[in-house]
Specification:
about 15% strand, 4 helices, about 60% helix, three-stranded antiparallel β-sheet, Nucleotide Exchange Factor Grpe, Chain A, domain 2, single chain, three-stranded mixed β-sheet, alpha+beta
């Protein structure tokens, strides 16, 4: 060290050295506090990230479970959707069996006809319960949305484009066409 450097060091008062050391320690202490604060914030953020990730995994698992449950419910609905309809048809089948047994054990065709009429009415009631209703076609104007023309009948006794006869009854399901009526339609005779 040069003599001038030694003199400069000797000229520095011990109080100023203490003050500068105190300032350095104070700055380091503040930096340490700031570092600790940043560490605490980082820890807090890492916990929040971990919690959010766990919530995400739970939500993803819930979604997968929901998809599986919905697929099973859809499958069951397709598989068993007609259960109530078919359950309502079973008494009709029982009535048909009783009518056939009665016909085999009796020569009375009138009672058989009455039994068949009752079974038909029972069947129509079951259909109506599910929103199926017959289309009234005979004597009505031909409507291609409800009727399927099987043939044209030349006649002066019926108005043109009126349904003369019905070969197969048509039905609506909740107001939508289930099956069209198969009909014959009047066409005026050429003179």
């Amino acid at each position: 060290m040069t003599q001038k450097g030694k003199k400069d060091q000797e000229n520095i008062a011990p109080e100023s050295i203490e003050e500068s050391l105190y300032e350095e320690i104070k700055e380091e202490s503040a930096a340490d506090e700031e570092t600790e604060s940043l560490r605490a914030q980082l820890e807090s953020k890492e916990k929040a990230v971990a919690e959010n990730y766990n919530n995400y995994l739970r939500a993803l698992a819930d979604l997968e479970n929901y998809k599986k449950r919905a697929a099973k419910e859809k499958s069951d609905l397709i598989k068993y959707g007609n259960e109530n309809l078919l359950r309502d048809f079973l008494p009709i089948l029982d009535s048909l069996d009783r009518a056939l047994d009665a016909a085999c054990n009796s020569d009375n065709m009138e009672s058989f006809r009455e039994g068949m009429t009752l079974v038909r009415n029972q069947f129509l009631c079951a259909l109506e319960k599910y929103g199926v209703e017959p289309i009234d076609a005979c004597g009505q104007d031909f409507d291609p949305n409800l009727h399927e023309a099987m043939l044209e009948v030349a006649s002066d006794s019926h108005e043109e484009s009126k349904v003369v006869d019905e070969y197969e009854k048509g039905y609506l399901l909740q107001g939508r066409l289930l099956r069209p009526s198969k009909v014959s339609v009047c066409k005026r005779k050429k003179k």
